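Hey all, sorry for the wall of text incoming. These are the two entities for the joint prediction.
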Amino acid sequence: MRILILGGDGYLGWPTAMQLSASGHEITVVDNYLRRNLCREENIEPLYQTPNLHERTAIWKEKTGNQIEVIIGDLRNWEVIADAFSKSKPDCIVHYAEQPSAPYSMLNRKTASLTLMNNIEVTANVIFAMKEFCPDAHLIKLGTMGEYGTPNIDIEEGWLDITHNGRSQKFLYPRAAGSLYHTTKVLDTDLLWFYVRTWGLKVTDLMQGPVYGMFTEESSLDPRLLPFFNYDEMFGTVINRFVVQAVAGYPLTVYGKGGQTRGYLNIVDTLQCVKLAVENPAKAGELRIMNQFTETFSVNELAELVKKAGDRFGLDVKIKPIENPRKEMEEHYYNPKHTAFQKLGLKSVPLTENVLYRMMEVVSQYSADIINKRIFPGKAKWNQFNKTNNTTNSSLQ
Amino acid sequence: MRILILGGDGYLGWPTAMQLSASGHEITVVDNYLRRNLCREENIEPLYQTPNLHERTAIWKEKTGNQIEVIIGDLRNWEVIADAFSKSKPDCIVHYAEQPSAPYSMLNRKTASLTLMNNIEVTANVIFAMKEFCPDAHLIKLGTMGEYGTPNIDIEEGWLDITHNGRSQKFLYPRAAGSLYHTTKVLDTDLLWFYVRTWGLKVTDLMQGPVYGMFTEESSLDPRLLPFFNYDEMFGTVINRFVVQAVAGYPLTVYGKGGQTRGYLNIVDTLQCVKLAVENPAKAGELRIMNQFTETFSVNELAELVKKAGDRFGLDVKIKPIENPRKEMEEHYYNPKHTAFQKLGLKSVPLTENVLYRMMEVVSQYSADIINKRIFPGKAKWNQFNKTNNTTNSSLQ
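and here's what came out:
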């Protein structure tokens, strides 16, 4: 299958590209290095440097003989996306190409506007390019479990049958996200749903939980093939951040009461899920929504698990609740369904002390490179918003 | 009250500005003449020319002594919106500043992208400007009844209490709009709801039905104060279009079966509703949603009503069903609630033969100026989308 991976340089994009390439698919990756540039601008570089896409694909070819095509460009630019679609003639598109950080989206007007306009324009361009170049292709779009927020009722997989005054209809499950970033994914879903029912596109929208981990089968071939690993509050997800805090000897920073519960998954399960979606496409006119996570944990449970693994690793791990910079419920009902991928055959990897222990082994190799000021969160506050600011925010320095 | 009217040159923006000015408020209007420019580009000029905003406000001052401030600029440009907010220091913002045509949004990639990016960026900038300049001001945003689509259950006013597996929550009423334009209003609502609950803004989101008519109390002072009156399929709403078709001796073009039912209102009722919203603001942290229409009609019922009025006027009005260029249900359940404005005291004007007769009197004064090719719809087809097209679409010529 010819597969176009948008955002192919990212934490998930690159491992996905390798895995689908290893499975025999013809892969083209597109990226504009937005995340690398934002990390540099905000001085929140990842734990270790990763080669650029041309370098990574050269290493991949050297190790496996498989070619991955690279296009560098901004998918907001129609010429870039038209070029990518017309050259790669995709049967399937995996769309990761969005600004992926919730705190970054809440920092100031510039970062909010960038997140909103980037994410919505890229998704719209993908839809328009499908209509023009490959109306029968299958789009796999990365959404987020955060689209649902934390409602007081069970979270179904994308849709909800509603009966009201004696009549019934199936609707998109009502969404209420907790950050502007998450809200852009809600907008994406609305937009995709409109064009799916109007043009009969085939779309899978993955409501993914926060991902943790760094190891995949393909990255084991060469450490230079590892994905990005950010540990700051902007681009580092909570488990990865806690592991780095533990190794650095900093207390694990729990926001508020720590009862915030979410659905998590290991990076290898992201790859499994995307592969299952690739191999079992949505039908024409179908917006197939699947909840992509494997286990739910509260932040307190995660902190305890990291502490246990860290103590076994010989670290003296402390846990320190801090004032919650976000606006969110710290104790809430949370019962999200996730059976769609199980039905497709997902065999998931649980989060264990051993998984965390192995992450600590790698992270501790870089312990000298950990920059303390990148560890502590709380710089992006949900109720604050920088005043007119056309230059890069300097509050992170 | 200091009121900032965004999109103050439009079909509703200008009459709103006059009415609120006549009520003693201090008015500033902002517009970038987007609609005038699009009409010129697409060769779908309105029935009669209207003076520009500087000219209109000068006439208004001459007739009433009231000053309306004018700012010409694009609200996607932060400097323009920051200037407008910092100069006018609004207590209330009325936001009409969006590309308002469904067919235009479905024409080709250029018009779709313009609609999406314009509408979402202006709304985001309004939110950011409120946070920076006037966090306690009240925003009145024009949405559309079209956000709801035509669900099989009763349409409530913005919100729906849902019980599922024995637990309950109030959600935004699920939305499923019928065009990209209408979908941009859904995105606006999502964005507003996020920032209302995060920042505690005061927002009224008006789900307005198609508006008809041209006369308001203020425009009776001078015919040069009349609003735009488009009769093409892009910018002309259905009743206005039917009246012009009747006067021009063209059959009224009903799409498909003509059972499409919507909620309509007279332009004077739009003004009443907006004034009621201005004088009864939303509370801090409240997204108040009100369904703004007064009567529901099917397209067939409208056509029959226009035919009756036209026949009395001495026209021989024919009705001609044509292939539906849209993707929509032509027969459907439709039961939208609209009690919120009644509770605030709205005394609405019904659509009668007399109302249509009076419109025909004015339209017939311009019958020599009616351009036949502007009368017939069907150029914007929901299932067609122009290929790569960076120049103005010429299919309308």
